[in-house]
Design a protein that fits this description.
Elements: H1 3-8, H2 10-13, H3 24-47, E1 50-51, E2 58-59, H4 64-69, E3 75-79, E4 82-89, H5 92-103, H6 110-126, E5 134-138, H7 143-149, H8 153-160, E6 169-171, H9 183-190, E7 194-196, E8 221-229, H10 233-244, E9 248-257, H11 273-278
Parallel strand pairs: 4-9, 5-8, 8-9
Antiparallel strand pairs: 1-2, 3-4, 6-7
């Protein structure tokens, strides 16, 4: 997907239904499908009431009040030495909805999360120079996570944005769930876990090994996308794997950032978080609250 195509699509101008690299008719069809989908959801909510994934009240998948709480607030953050754009803070309603969507099978909440991801993508792309194509790529999920969920959360959201990511990364080995690990453990767990995608051995079985020999990405630029960032270890590993194959990570965008929280007894402002983190005072029991869902 070329950067120019992305910028000329609804992703950059706020039109929620335009599909990158598509024509006007594609946008019209997407708009029509969205209207039909909303009408169906309204009808289902009347016949088969559902609980809002944000507050739990009987309503649509995400009630009006919770949708308002998910209004995009794109911000540039830094994790693991990387500049990252995030559309939301993983807290409050956003934490409830994202957790339900990611590990509660609440795919009906996806539409409420799309605006924040789109805002993050637009912000990230705004700082990318024109020129060679920019491809969207994501962090691969583990086979276990795919089986447990039945879908890949970030791919569902990107599809709603009209984007089909390039499968450029693959798992090099099995890794632990990042949730519950402190910052050092996350770095160790992520290190060496990804490679540029090569041709998978045709064994007919899932395999952790990927034949990456000869995979070269020279001249290719990527917009790296993930659903949530905590310490940034996994994103840093993805950047390393792309660079090792000769590619360039032009920008990074995530749906939400997990805030680095100080212990309740620490009466100091959020502006001190950088120093606090530098001293190792986040992660595990001392600070950041890990997302209560499966990672990868």
């Amino acid at each position: 997907m070329r950067l120019r195509a992305i910028r000329e699509s609804g992703l950059m101008d706020g039109d929620p239904q335009r599909v990158p690299d598509g024509d006007a008719r594609s946008g019209d069809r997407a708009t029509y499908r969205a209207l039909v989908r909303d009408a169906v959801h309204d009808a289902i909510a009347v016949l088969l009431p559902v609980a809002c994934s944000g507050c739990g009240r009987a309503d649509r998948a995400v009630c009006t009040e919770c949708r308002s709480a998910l209004a995009p607030e794109p911000r540039r953050i830094e994790r693991a030495g990387l500049a990252i754009w995030a559309g939301l803070e993983y807290a409050g309603v956003a934490a409830s909805v994202l957790g339900a969507f990611k590990d509660g099978a609440r795919t009906d909440a996806a539409s409420a999360l799309v605006p924040a991801l789109r805002a993050s993508l637009r912000s990230a792309l705004a700082g990318v120079s024109t020129g060679s194509p920019v491809e969207v790529c994501t962090i691969p999920s583990t086979p276990a996570a795919r089986r447990a969920r039945g879908y890949v959360p970030v791919d569902v959201l990107l599809k709603r944005c009209g984007i089909r990511p390039t499968a450029v990364l693959a798992l090099a080995r099995e890794r632990l769930d990042q949730a519950g690990l402190d910052a050092d453990a996350r770095r160790r767990n992520a290190a060496g876990g990804l490679v540029a995608r090569g041709r998978r051995p045709s064994t007919g079985r899932e395999s952790w090994s990927v034949d990456a020999a000869g995979v070269r990405l020279q001249g290719r630029r990527f917009l790296l996308v993930d659903d949530i960032v905590t310490t940034g270890s996994t994103l840093a590993e993805a950047v390393r794997a792309i660079a090792a194959a000769g590619g360039e990570t032009a920008a990074i965008a995530v749906l939400a950032e997990t805030p680095r929280r100080l212990p309740e007894r620490a009466a100091i402002s959020r502006e001190t978080l950088r120093d606090f983190a530098a001293q190792g005072g986040y992660g595990g029991m001392t600070g950041v609250v890990d997302p209560p869902f499966r990672t990868g």
